[in-house]
């Protein structure tokens, strides 16, 4: 049986077996990968090292010489795979533009493409909660939405929308999507939206229910769909088929990094 090296044919993260490639075979691919990294960094207004740190979240920060070694193709197979996968998941179109030989097929699911096409950024926030007493006091002159939260810290969502109706939530971690209950108990996936801003999830008395991430550090993506149609589906596959003319809906997205 032939073993795919990923050097020929279409190339997505799963097709390139970085570990089986020799250092010599991997070097030209690493150089192409660096071309994508440096170009995406320029296009998104961050430094190369900042972009590398985002892709290698949870790993020790790289040194100042790392980008020079990367440019010469000298990075490990494990980190090449991690960087390639991160670019596929977060900046596929840009990466394909600057390194088309490495990014030929977009492996994103219909759901990921649905989120990318409809996501509203900025109206879904994370509000930290203190113990079981209520909301932390906030200073409106500072940034209200932290992009970093500690593991075990209680939080909930704050949604700003003109829609009144039903909301459902999903969470993505390490490429996998999961449903996140918004109802008064964990068996009810849907929550109700009756005001703006709206705290989610809430109990039957309207008080916020605390959420917490206890174990999985790193970047998590949260998506909340709000609709005036109470019959909107709760599963990902059917949600990806929503059409604007069938019901009024909005897709809200926020990225949060959990740290120890």
Report on the structure:
- It is a single chain.
- 27% of the residues lie in helices and 23% in strands.
- It is built from six helices and eleven strands.
- Strands 1, 4, 6, 7, 8, 10 and 11 form a seven-stranded mixed beta sheet that branches. A four-stranded antiparallel beta sheet has the order 3-2-5-9, with no helix packed on it.
- It is elongated.
- The N terminus is likely disordered.
List the helices and strands and how they pair.
Blueprint: H1 23-44, H2 48-55, H3 66-71, H4 77-98, H5 110-118, E1 119-121, E2 124-130, E3 134-135, E4 148-150, E5 155-159, E6 165-173, E7 176-180, E8 191-193, E9 198-200, E10 218-227, H6 236-239, E11 249-259
Parallel strand pairs: 1-11, 4-11
Antiparallel strand pairs: 2-3, 2-5, 5-9, 6-7, 6-8, 6-10, 10-11
Helix pairs in contact: 1-2, 1-4
